[in-house]
């Protein structure tokens, strides 16, 4: 599987790259990073390519999917602390990844209009980060830890699965070994 990992230099992106490589060394991993200089060399060695494009640019994300012939993507951009008066770009990044995947899949499948059934299944497999609080649990609905993720989950469930075969990833708590001594690192 050829996988584009968006926000590969973040905590979850790094964990996804390591897990993909551990699961199957046959995976081709394309890392999308904001600043290549901050991407660890050990992880770069696990990747087949490092791409630097804006994660909010649908056209450039689609170009990366096309150029590297990706059949899957991991949108690993999670919560970044912001002040209440600031704007989070997470929903924009999320929508850009979904739009790019849907556009490329439609091109590959020959779909020209909404509702058309593809003759060949060329859907892009997408794992998208949402909040654990957005999911239903056996004991009831959990409160959202970061409400911005609920917006992302709402975007997902409104999307048809005809072009993008999506799954919501809902990590509970992301800890790095550098910031939490004694905690289990990803």
Automatic annotation (TrEMBL):
<dbReference type="InterPro" id="IPR036291">
    <property type="entry name" value="NAD(P)-bd_dom_sf"/>
</dbReference>
<protein>
    <recommendedName>
        <fullName>NAD(P)-binding domain-containing protein</fullName>
    </recommendedName>
</protein>
